[in-house]
């Protein structure tokens, strides 16, 4: 079996993405995720055996159809959790890099590095979603520990390869000045961080929870105001972090 024959399961794809890394990008959403984030907008991507089965070769062929459009961007693997399918992710990104296509991985870092290091190394850029710095907050938001997330950030720092940090501003959970200052102070010690994206909480995926018969605990949680987002950005900027 060659890399092109390796199979994976995908949730969906976006051929002209502009929100998941630099430039215009082919964004592939992989199936399966061990986290149960309260604000997840793709809960239908959680179950690893659902979605569509594809081969690396099929996806590479499709990506190459758009190569002229993504030449200043690239491909981003998102999810779900792309590192939950490490063999598929590693093989697909390796093939894309052979064609000169920039690669990015959008991950919450929920998979131990010992299981996915080869896949991580095939990502020219890592988009690392840190849900919360405090372990208790992280457990409430996701149902899991943030240990592997922070270990992944440490690993990227050791390799000197770039990371964009993503952090969702959730009123009543993460949108407190002290929590934001603690996270910004922590991140300010990392030289690999090229950008911090502060993402306002939204409820665009709430209807999927309803369709799946799942309780959505954030129904009464408002989106942050423009002023709150601006204040959060000021906090991160005050620690010298690029926004």
Oligomer: single chain
What is the architecture at the second tier of CATH?
Answer: Alpha-Beta Barrel
CATH-assigned homologous superfamily: Aldolase class I
List the helices and strands in order. Answer: EEEHEHEHEHHEHEHH
* Proportion of residues in β-strands: 15-25%
Number of helices: 8
Structural class: alpha/beta
- Radius of gyration, taken over Cα atoms and rounded to an integer in Å: 18 Å
Describe this structure in words.
The chain has 243 residues and is of the alpha/beta class. It has one domain: TIM Barrel, CATH 3.20.20. It is 34% helix and 21% strand. It has eight helices and eight strands, in the order βββαβαβαβααβαβαα. It has helices at 56-65, 86-98, 113-121, 135-142, 147-159, 177-187, 206-211, 226-238, and strands spanning 7-17, 25-30, 52-55, 74-78, 103-107, 125-129, 163-169, 193-200. It has an eight-stranded mixed β-sheet. Strand 1 and strand 2 form a beta hairpin. The radius of gyration is 18 Å and the shape is globular. It starts with 6 loop residues before the first strand and ends in a 5-residue tail after the last helix. The model has no long low-confidence stretch (mean pLDDT 97).
Topology:
Blueprint: E1 7-17, E2 25-30, E3 52-55, H1 56-65, E4 74-78, H2 86-98, E5 103-107, H3 113-121, E6 125-129, H4 135-142, H5 147-159, E7 163-169, H6 177-187, E8 193-200, H7 206-211, H8 226-238
